[in-house]
Design goal:
By secondary structure, the protein is an alpha+beta fold. The chain has a domain of 96 residues: so0334 like fold (2-Layer Sandwich). The chain is built from two helices and five strands. The protein is elongated, with a radius of gyration of 33 Å.
C-alpha cells in the first residue's frame, strides 16, 4: 500500500509529488492525482509541526467530490482549448483563402477613359461636416 502525503500548511498542488518531502496541499488534489485508488493511504497534517495522520472517511468522501470537480474543470479546459484551436485554424484558413483570391485580382486601366496623370499633393484640407480629408493639388 503506497502513501500519499498532504500538508495543508506548506504543501503545493502545482509542484507537489505526494511525497513526504514534496507533499500536496489539498486532499482533493491528492485523490485526483492518484486516480482515487483504494490501495492508497492518504496521510494528512494541518500544520508543519504536527505529525501526519491518516485521513478520515468523511474527509476522503469530500475529497473525492473535489477530485471529480478538478477532473471536470480539466476536461472543460481541454475542450475549450481544442475549440479555440479549431476556430483559430478555421480563421487562418479563411484569411489564407482571401489572400489567395486577392492575389488573382488584376487592376487594369480602362482604355475608354482618359489616361491617368501624376500630381503632387502638398496640402491636405479637412472638411468638417463630412469627416473627409481632401488633397489640394497645386
Amino acid at each position: 500500500m503506497s502513501s500519499v502525503y498532504v500538508d495543508e500548511a506548506v504543501g503545493s498542488d502545482e509542484t507537489g509529488k505526494g511525497t513526504q518531502e514534496l507533499p500536496f496541499k489539498s486532499l482533493a488534489f491528492a485523490v485526483y492525482s492518484s486516480d482515487g485508488h483504494d490501495s492508497v493511504k492518504y496521510l494528512i497534517r494541518k500544520d508543519a509541526t504536527a505529525d501526519y495522520d491518516e485521513a478520515t472517511q468523511s474527509a476522503l468522501k469530500k475529497a473525492k467530490k473535489g477530485a471529480d470537480g478538478i477532473e471536470k474543470k480539466k476536461k472543460k479546459a481541454e475542450e475549450l482549448a481544442a475549440r479555440e484551436d479549431s476556430e483559430k485554424k478555421a480563421e487562418r484558413e479563411r484569411k489564407e483563402k482571401l489572400l489567395e483570391e486577392s492575389k488573382k485580382i488584376v487592376l487594369e486601366e480602362d482604355p475608354a477613359l482618359p489616361g491617368a496623370t501624376k500630381v503632387k499633393s502638398r496640402h491636405f484640407v479637412y472638411c468638417p461636416n463630412t469627416n473627409v480629408w481632401l488633397t489640394v493639388c497645386i
